[in-house]
Amino acid sequence: MAEEQHQEVHRSLKTRHLSMIALGGSIGTGLFVASGSAISTAGPGGALLAYVGIGIMVYFLMTSLGEMATYLPVSGSFSTYATKFVDPALGFAMGWNYWFNWAITLAVDISTAAIVMQFWLPDIPGWVFSLIALVLIFMINALSVRSFGETEYWLSLIKVVTVLIFLVVGVLTIFGIMGGHATGLENFSYKKAPFVGGIPTILSVFVVAGFSFQGTELIGITAGESATPEKSIPAAIKQVFWRIILFYVLAIFVIAAIIPYTSKDLLGSSATDIAISPFTLVFKRAGLAAAASVMNAVILTSVLSAANSGMYASTRMLYSLSLQGYAPKTFGRVNRRGIPIMALLGTTVIGLLTFLSSMFGERIYIFLVSASGLTGFIAWLGIAISHLRFRRAFVKQGHQLSELRYHAKWFPFGPLFAFLLCLIVIVGQDIHSFATLDWQAIGVTYMSIPLFIVLYVYYKIRYRTKMIPLDQVDLSQSRHDD
């Protein structure tokens, strides 16, 4: 029965959908608002170094994921790969970890949508907007995978066009063609710039940059519903690398050149700070009066895009967990339109409950958001480990690399570099709290790690799983998650 239903997941996503989803997943409030705090903390040089470093790591991770996803395109993506190539306990822990991350992120996004809407309509209660956003996202995902892909394509396109306009306006402002005063590169040598605060400070900005890039791994999830994964995934990865460097690195450069790192206006990090978003400030500097309102509209599309992606990713992960026997069988059901409807309903309920906790139990909400904090980095670590094991097993079992439809660049440097940098970023998340032995802060910051370990150990002890020997790794190319 499950097999028949799995066949009904429709492969309707085209290359343009996948490229935009991967790109749109990484352009959000992290770039539009929080990028300013990165410059303020580590100076222009420190912020650029962090975003370039994480950007390169993300590219290598995408090539690792691309090699596995073109070989075995499944909705469960890295959870399935960890199960097949490493240890079922790792697959179990990674799947639930990732589902939890996106279900909580969904609640955060619908809360943020309300904050953004209150910029224009301050007299209407925020929960009204959140409820409308949740219903809208549910409907888009319940219609068909094509409606999800199409919505995500256009929402992402708005973000991309905004960044391009911003870059043009920013460059014209730097040279004094707009805004009257040419800043040139004077802010790169202003006071302590370009590097402020030394290595610990730059390391803390790596974390901000890492959060900004989370969502690019959605390529792996969408592979299970791509019409032509062997063509779409390599094309999407190639485009994403250049666009990440173009959008993120150039955007950070433009902001740093126009606004000095000492400016208090760079301290904003959430949607409530739209009036002092670096993008808003640069547009205002160039003489665009309606900048705040326009950027608010763009941030609204950005938040809805993130919620849309979050709903899709968590639904498909829950569906895949069910097919692998890691979640109740009911979540593996698919309707006639190819939608895992029970998994969608389950995720929506958790998103709604988490959102309600933000209204009635602030402490529970903060706990949940903190608990999901490092889950994205844990997923990235899992991708790197799975790829190292996949490639070693592939060679050990007598396969030729020419059999692979897509080759990850610079193997094994890519996954090893990603693994080490992820570990450094996770450990360096809150070095200050370790220095002052602030155990409460340490507990909140690193909560995701013990939660992941509990899931892993529970499954390991209950089912007595072992790491799969390389010569016994299942390399069959069945397109089923189970």
Provide structural commentary:
The chain crosses the membrane at residues 20-39, 99-121, 127-145, 157-178, 198-219, 240-261, 286-307, 339-358, 364-390, 410-427, 439-459. It is found in: Membrane. Keywords: Amino-acid transport, Membrane, Transmembrane, Transmembrane helix, Transport. With 482 residues, the protein is mostly helical. Helix content is 68%, strand content 0%. It contains 20 helices and no strands. It has helices at residues 2-7, 15-24, 29-32, 35-71, 78-85, 88-117, 126-143, 145-174, 198-213, 218-222, 229-258, 278-285, 291-323, 341-360, 362-371, 375-396, 413-427, 431-435, 439-445, 448-463. It is globular, with a radius of gyration of 22 Å. Mean pLDDT is 86; it is low at 1-7.
